[in-house]
Structure formats: structure tokens, C-alpha cells
Amino acid sequence: MRDWWKQWLTNLGWSQSLLLGTLDIVLVLALTYMILVIISERRTLWMVRGFIILMLASALSNRLGLPLLNFVLEKLVIGCAVAMAVALQSEFRRFLEQLGRGEFRQLFHPSSLAVPKSDSVIDEIVDAVKELSKNRIGALLIVETTGPIDERDFSVPGVKLNAEVTKELIQTIFQPKTLLHDGATLIRGSRIIASGIILPLSGRTASRQLGTRHRAAMGITERVENCICVVVSEETGSISLAERGILNRPLTIRKLKESLEALLSPTVDREAVAPGLLSLGRQLNTKALVLVSRLLGLPRLRRATRTTASRDKK
Ligand SMILES: Nc1ncnc2c1ncn2[C@@H]1O[C@H](COP(=O)(O)OP(=O)(O)OP(=O)(O)O)[C@@H](O)[C@H]1O
User: Fold this and answer.
1) Do 150 and 257 reside in the same domain of the chain?
2) Same domain as 85, residue 199
3) Which of 131, 207, 242, 293 would you label with 101, given CA atoms 20 to 30 Å apart?
4) Does the beta carbon of 247 sit less than 6 angstroms from any atom of ligand 1?
5) Nearest residue to 220 via CA among 94, 48, 42, 82
């Protein structure tokens, strides 16, 4: 196989280096696209961009023959790589898991942005949490931010509900005498998907006061980046919000509402950085049409491009 490949490349002659060069560029582009898909947040992208700049600077200093600068930059690159591995551990974990499961398509497929939570859904959640906290009823809500969570990330997937999010339903679920009060409840968009979900616990050392409910919230949010958890303590009635394995507590109802609004609305920080391949294709198509219409001065083509652009905006 290897000999055949070598023979084929030799037969190609001068076009061999061109072919390999193109293949090299295509593979690097594919890798870059995959990284953008995995990162999926502009905030994190800046960090990766900074890292790439450092690597380029290190390569440049090597080329220019500046050994001292190169030495410092190389050490900096190694330090940053370790820091990034820690900071992006959930992304790395997801990447390795998808690779291990053989889900290659998902590696190139940006998780579609979830329907932004309407104010009414946030209000229903906040009102329910307020009542639960007042009555010291323990609760654990998982709220999806971008894209659905894979059920396999839960220890036990719970009981499917698929019901509209209302404060009455959330409060009813967590009443201590109901069958579903134990475990977590999953909210996707404006629907309650399931209840009685058992989550993986966080391995991080947390405050001694924190029991399994809080550690479960930390566990799922450090494992899955596209969700947050709202926790109401049964013991104290305090409210906590877990994001990326970090527990913010205690929160007032006002602070919880502000945080939910900030985290669940599609703001700049949560904007996807890698467009879907379809939308990428459509954008390229539009740009090509604009160029052709400008060159040829065709009014119809111009109108067509305007229509495509406005469809994209919608
Ligand atoms: N792995 C888990 N996944 C989902 N829910 C869990 C998990 N472990 C515990 N819980 C929920 O937490 C409850 C037990 O809470 P525990 O007292 O251990 O935690 P806590 O963090 O101290 O919370 P609280 O302040 O409400 O007492 C269980 O009854 C169950 O409903």
C-alpha cells in the first residue's frame, strides 16, 4: 500500500508537491474548523488566538535566529498549553469522548444554538425557585444553554415528561412526597424534558457544607459545557448557580434572574464562532454572486443576492 502510494506520487512528478501542499492546507483548515466547533464561544476563541500568536512568534524568533527570545517564547508556549488544557478541560474531554465514540460528524458540526429562553420561561423558573427557597424545598434544575445534552452524560436519564415550563409544575415536581422529586429536572427551551435524573458528581473538593445535590450540579456543568444548574438547598433554602463546574452561591432572587438572563440570551460571548457548513456554503455563495453581479453589472443577480442575504438574516 505504502509502495503503491510512493509510486503514484513519483509518477505525478511536479504536481506531487502541489498535491501534498494542498492536502496539508486542507487538513490544517479541517483541524482549525474542528477547533472552532469544539470551542464554540468567542470568549474562549480569543484565548486560542492568543496562543496561536505566541506559537507564531516563537517560530518567527527561531527563524530570525534570536535564541534568547525563542527560549523565553518556547517556555511561554508550554506554560500556556498546560494552562489551556486546564481551562478547557471540558472541551478536551468532549473532544476525546466524541473521538472515542466515533462521532466524527459531530466534530465538524457546531452544536445548534438553542432557542433563546424567552423572558416568560426565565420568569417561570425564577418564580418557582423563589417559592421553593422560601419553603425550604430542595431542587436541582439543569438548564440547557446551547444545543441538547447527550443523555449518556447522565448517570440515570430519569423519567421523560416533555411538558411546558411553568412555575407550578416545577414546584410540584420537587415536593418531597412526589415520585420525581429525587434527582434533577432537565429544561430545554420552554419544555421540561425529564425529571428524576441522576447526575455524575464532581470530583473537585468543595466546601464541607455542600452535599451531593450541589456536587451533582458542579459535576454535570464541569462535564457538559452547554448547561447550567440552579440549586435550591433543602437545608438552608439558599440558591446557587453552577456554571462550568463552579458554584456561585448564595444568590438573591434578583441576582439569579440577572444571571439567567445573561447566560440564556444569545449575547456576544455565547455567539457561535464556527458557522455551520450549510450556512458557510450559503455565505460563500452569496459573496460569489455579489462579485459576479458587480463585475457584469447585472441588476437581477443583485436582487437575487439581496434575497439570499435577507433569508440568511431571518
Ligand atoms: N447525583 C445526583 N444527581 C441528582 N440529584 C442528586 C444526586 N445526588 C443527590 N441528589 C439530590 O440531592 C438530594 C440529597 O441532597 P444532599 O442533602 O445530599 O445534598 P446537599 O447538597 O446537602 O443539598 P441540601 O442543601 O438540599 O441538603 C437527594 O435527595 C437527591 O434529590
Assistant:
1) yes
2) no
3) 242
4) no
5) 94
